[in-house]
Design a protein that fits this description.
It is an enzyme of class 5 (isomerase). The chain has 856 residues and is α+β, with helices and mostly antiparallel strands. It has 22 helices and 34 strands. A six-stranded antiparallel β-barrel has the order 9-10-13-12-11-14. Strands 2-1-7-8 form a four-stranded parallel beta sheet, sandwiched between helices. Helix 5 packs antiparallel against helix 16, helix 6 crosses helix 14 and helix 8 packs antiparallel against helix 13.
Length: 856
């Protein structure tokens, strides 16, 4: 029997660590936190700020198993992660498992290698209460902010909303950037570029040093250049260097994985977690760029072996942030001899980390920069060509050249031909193109992480969940913005003279960037107007500093909470009592037909347009906004167009056809089937012919592709990806299958697996009653329609076994449902029949249309 029990956070980590420890050790996983604040209620005594932790329902069985293992062990080693969250997990385990100080040891390691694990075992410590308190302070403060601010939003804006200390600040950044873009006025100027030829007919691309504000000035310059003899006025060559970036922190890894690999923040952290747990990299939640001497030596050995001694330059980096924990390391490989790993997806991120760390220990790249000035004394401005030659590639050999998001796409750094001062050049062509200034770019996920880090808001462990939360709350999204069009002037000087043309350019389009939703903007405006301090960037950063002071033992966490709450709670009471309701209402003008006022605002079902007043004798009419519209920018004309929807067309195959807009965008409704109108297509432009085209496309898409036991099988793509449909069963098609060329064997395999899974799903099923007892992820449940209910314990306070549930009667199950939902079987009253309208009804909707979830 093992004398030592090691408890880690994840089963993957447990599996890796078990390999390194002998038979005297048993390694078990806590699967993260075993207890937390209760899901319902505040869970905090606001007089003393004492949290009321509880073991979550899904962890009770696990805790019982851990308690049983603890009884058999002489020593328990708490080996959760080395950050504050990990320290708190160790503390919760020690408390819940009733571990005595003499029977427990806390060990930490920042990599899962044999040496690191054995070294940790040799150097145990006790739980660091300061780190635990810093995590408790964050958890308690954020719970208080969320639980006290959210009900204010329910009362003043819309039910179901939420607020949070960091998430609300992140939303504020996105909203303020969007407002900045809306208010931006683009200014035109003319940029000139010339292509010049030397005697060897080699091209030199050069840009005029100064732009012209006026078209006439640019045109005059071209006319002057037409008769000018161009020559090389100056050639300047100077040496330069490029220096490698520091090894990765959590933030810089997320940014680089986004720009180089296209990964979002959540995917990056999920893959990094796996790399860490499987022993390939060091701990991936860190704000330190520090490397251990062991790592520096390992990198040097690999660089010398692979590239040669002249490429090696060992160095250590220091973190600018005062709050960074230098005892931690940057994210790096655990073994520099391991250049790649088998899993293709993991390998992409591993390669990025490997090359970045290696590059950080390599020589600078040496470059030679050449600047050529081209012109003539009679010209008011001269051209300049810039080129760059890499003399020694240094770290670029491992890492390559990366363009940042801020770098100019039109960078003209390139290899230039050899020229000498005074050498005559001939112009091939010179162009003057009208360019408009651009507003600041919208945030990408990586850009938002970078900004939060710059402001000192959040810490490595908070970036990914914060970004996920603001999307889940639907305060921001990444919908694609269609570009607008504008005319620009382009003038070209060739040998035949100046040619002027008017071109069309697209601008303002965006995709995969954060855009605030209407509700996100309304919530942000309400919070910034009423809780200015909480949403202040400086205040949020200061709170993070307080957590750091608690972690270092320089501040008591309950004193910090008392100080915070003494100012925060009175503000909550004041806003709840005195603040006006907020719905983002904006007056658009007057409807020319009815003479009534038209408003854009947030309604019960989201952003909408309202014609008329709430207290008018004749009730107002409403229409939903389309997904690409916004209450802050929609015009009166665009709003009135919405009242033409929904509209009917002629029947197709004996079934009615309606064009409308719903929750998931514009659609064609054919009979009972909803068919999405392609992205970017205006539903008002869909006529009979176009509707029939869309319906026919749907027919083709829904045509059987095969059969299974004599029944047709169709395929399609839904919200959750590609699927096949057999009878009434939808079966997702995993990526390992070629969806475009599914064989009969593939189809048989997919359907067989699904039917087997469905057969094991039901313990009992009363189809007519829409009631079932089913096997679920965390144990059996009762399902009534779409509602899920718990299975109560038996009279002796024990749980039902699956075999016992097979014998439970329908009447007994109905009692269980009624106990949890007294109205479950109450017959709903049928709505009274509507009286026929005295006059033709308006086509405007009385409530925003809700398109049902698209059926697969």
């Amino acid at each position: 029997m093992p004398k030592n029990l090691v408890i880690v956070e994840s089963p993957a980590k447990a599996k890796t660590i078990q390999k390194y420890l002998g038979s005297d050790f048993e390694v078990k996983s806590s699967f993260g936190h075993i207890r937390d604040l209760p899901k319902k209620g505040m869970g905090i005594d606001l007089a003393s700020f004492t949290p009321d932790y509880e073991v979550s329902a899904d962890k009770k069985k696990l805790v019982a198993e851990l308690k049983a293992s603890v009884k058999k062990a002489d020593m328990v080693w708490l080996a959760s992660d080395e950050d504050r969250e990990g320290e708190a997990i160790a503390w919760h385990l020690a408390d819940e498992l009733k571990l005595k100080p003499e029977n427990r040891k806390r060990i930490v390691f920042h990599e899962i290698t044999k040496n690191a694990i054995l070294k940790a075992i040799d150097n145990p410590r006790d739980i660091d209460q300061n780190l635990v308190n810093a995590q408790q302070a964050r958890r308690v403060l954020d719970r208080i902010v969320g639980f006290e601010m959210s009900p204010v939003l329910w009362k003043k804006v819309k039910t179901g909303l939420s607020a949070g200390r960091v998430q609300s600040v992140a939303v504020r950044l996105v909203v303020e950037r969007e407002k900045e873009i809306r208010e931006f006025t683009p200014k035109p100027s003319f940029k000139l570029e010339g292509i010049f030829l030397n005697d060897n007919k080699q091209e030199i691309l050069a840009k005029l040093k100064k732009d012209f504000e006026k078209e006439s000035d640019a045109e005059n310059f071209l006319n002057l250049a037409k008769t000018t003899d161009f020559k090389v006025l100056n050639v300047e060559t100077k040496p330069g260097t490029r220096t490698a970036s520091a090894p990765f922190t959590t933030s810089t890894l997320q940014q680089e994985a986004s720009s180089r690999l296209g990964y979002n923040v959540t995917s990056t952290m999920r893959l990094a977690q796996r790399l860490y747990e499987e022993g390939f990299i060091t701990y991936m939640r860190t704000d330190s760029v520090n490397l251990s001497q062991e790592a520096i030596n390992g990198a040097k050995a690999q660089i010398v072996s692979e590239y040669g001694e002249n490429y090696s330059k060992p160095r250590n980096y220091t973190t600018k942030s005062s709050s960074a924990q230098e005892a931690h390391e940057a994210i790096r490989p655990t073994d520099f001899a391991l250049k790649s790993i088998g899993d293709a997806q993991l390998n992409k991120l591993y390669q990025l980390i490997y090359r970045r760390t290696l590059a950080s220990q390599m020589e600078n790249a040496k470059i030679e920069k050449t600047v050529i000035e081209i012109g003539n004394a009679k010209l008011p401005q001269h051209f300049e060509a810039q080129g760059e030659v890499i003399i020694f590639d240094g770290f670029l050999k491992a890492y390559g050249i990366v363009k940042t998001e801020d770098e100019d796409d039109e960078s003209n750094e390139k290899l230039l031909p050899k020229v000498s001062v005074g050498e005559a050049l001939d112009y091939k062509k010179i162009t003057a193109t009208e360019k408009f200034t651009r507003p600041s770019a919208r945030f990408t996920e990586a850009g938002l992480v970078k900004k939060l880090e710059e402001l000192g808001i959040g810490r490595p462990s908070t970036y990914a969940p914060t970004i996920q939360t603001i999307q889940n709350r639907e305060y921001v999204d990444k919908r694609e913005l269609e570009p607008q069009k504008r005319e620009i002037v382009k003038m070209t000087l060739g040998k035949s003279g100046v040619k002027k043309e008017v071109l069309e350019e697209k601008f303002g389009g965006d995709k995969n960037k954060f855009i605030p939703t209407d509700i996100g903007e309304v919530v942000n405006d309400f919070l910034t107007n009423n809780f200015a301090e909480i949403l202040d960037y400086g205040f949020t950063a200061k709170v993070e500093e307080s957590f750091d002071h608690i972690a270092s033992g320089d501040q008591k966490w309950k004193e910090m909470m008392t100080d915070f709450y003494s100012k925060f709670h009175p503000r909550i009471e004041d806003v709840e009592e005195n603040a006006d309701r907020a719905n983002g209402e904006r007056s658009l003008g007057v409807d020319p037909k009815s003479g009534k006022n038209v408003y854009a605002r947030i309604g019960r079902f989201g952003p909408m347009i309202q014609i008329g007043e709430q207290d008018d004798e004749e009730k107002p009419t409403f229409a939903s906004l389309m997904s690409n519209q916004n209450i802050s920018t929609i015009t009166l004309e665009e709003a009135l167009e919405l009242f033409k929807l929904p509209f009917d067309l002629k029947e197709v195959d004996g079934q009615t056809v309606t064009i409308g807009v719903g929750r998931f965008g514009p659609y064609v409704k054919w009979g009972e089937t909803y068919i999405s109108i392609p992205k970017g297509e205006d539903p008002l432009s869909v006529d009979q012919n176009r509707a029939e085209e869309i319906i026919n496309e749907k027919k083709v898409a829904d045509a059987p592709i095969a059969s299974y036991k004599g029944e047709p099988v169709t395929k399609g793509t839904g919200r959750f990806g590609p699927f096949i449909k057999y009878q009434s069963i939808f079966i997702n098609v995993p990526k390992r299958y070629n969806f475009d060329n599914l064989s009969q064997n593939d189809i048989n395999e997919l359907i067989d697996a699904k039917l087997e899974k469905e057969a094991n799903r039901y313990i009992q099923h009363w189809e007519a009653e829409k009631i079932s007892i089913e096997n679920a992820r965390w144990g059996p449940i009762v399902k009534h329609g779409k509602n899920i209910h718990k299975i109560p314990k038996k009279k002796d306070d024990t749980k039902y076994e699956a075999d016992e549930l097979k014998d439970v009667s329908l009447d007994e199950v109905k009692k269980w449902i009624t106990a949890q939902d007294p109205k479950a079987f109450v017959e709903k009253k049928k709505p009274a029949a509507k009286k026929p309208a005295a006059k033709k009804a308006t086509t405007a909707k009385k409530a925003p249309a809700k398109k049902p979830a698209a059926k697969k």
